[in-house]
Amino acid sequence: MSVEEMFERLESAGEGELGEIKLWLFKESIRLRDERQELEFSRADFLQEQENIREENRRYEEHLATRGRQLRREEELIEQKHEVIKRGFAELEHDRQTVRAREESLRAREAEVNDVFFRGADNILLLKKRYKDLMKMFHPDCMGGDTEMVKSLNRTYDRLLGEFDSFGKRRRA
């Protein structure tokens, strides 16, 4: 029903019909008021939900930014640890080479010293006698004895024993 039709009907209406129209208008105004209130509540709920979602998005973005910074820091720490480990391995390799060089130098000196101790031992009997005499001097149970020297003498003695043939004479190369 249009507004013009409503005004025409009101002008031509009688007492009873006016009462019905008034009642209908009253009910309609209450219905519209209730719908308006419902819409306002729905709008308020919608705005509140919208604000909650914005706040949640803001917190999530902050969390992502924080997590991103943490990941970058962790990556930097891992890279620093990796560099420390690489330097440690380089130092370890340098130390190994230094130790090897020292060991080779000591072996060479040991061989020279031990060859001096066993110089002139051309037969196996003389070699054994010289070994026993040296062991009496350098044995760890004796005063001034040295375990490392005994080990060195044993190595040299074993090497020299291998140079003798089954007849007790030194093989010539």
Beta content comes to under 5%
Count of folded domains: 2
Q: H/E order of the elements?
A: HHHH
State the share of residues found in helices, binned by percent: over 70%
Principal-axes geometry comes out as rod-shaped
- Total DSSP helices: 4
Reported for the largest beta sheet, the result is: none
Task: Work out the radius of gyration.
Answer: 54 Å
Question: Structural class, please?
Answer: mainly alpha
Note poorly predicted spans.
none
Indicate the mean pLDDT: 86
Describe the structure.
- Helix 3 runs antiparallel to helix 4 (147-162).
- This protein has 2 domains: 3-117; 118-173, no CATH class.
- It has helices spanning 3-12, 15-117, 124-138, 147-162.
- With 173 residues, the chain is mostly helical.
- Helices cover 83% and strands 0% of the residues.
- The protein starts with a helix and ends in an 11-residue tail after the last helix.
What does the secondary structure layout of this molecule look like, with pairings?
Blueprint: H1 3-12, H2 15-117, H3 124-138, H4 147-162
Helix pairs in contact: 3-4
Supply database-style keywords.
2 domains, rod-shaped, 173 residues, 0% strand, 4 helices, mainly alpha
Summed up:
With 173 residues, this protein is an all-alpha fold. The protein is built from 4 helices and no strands.
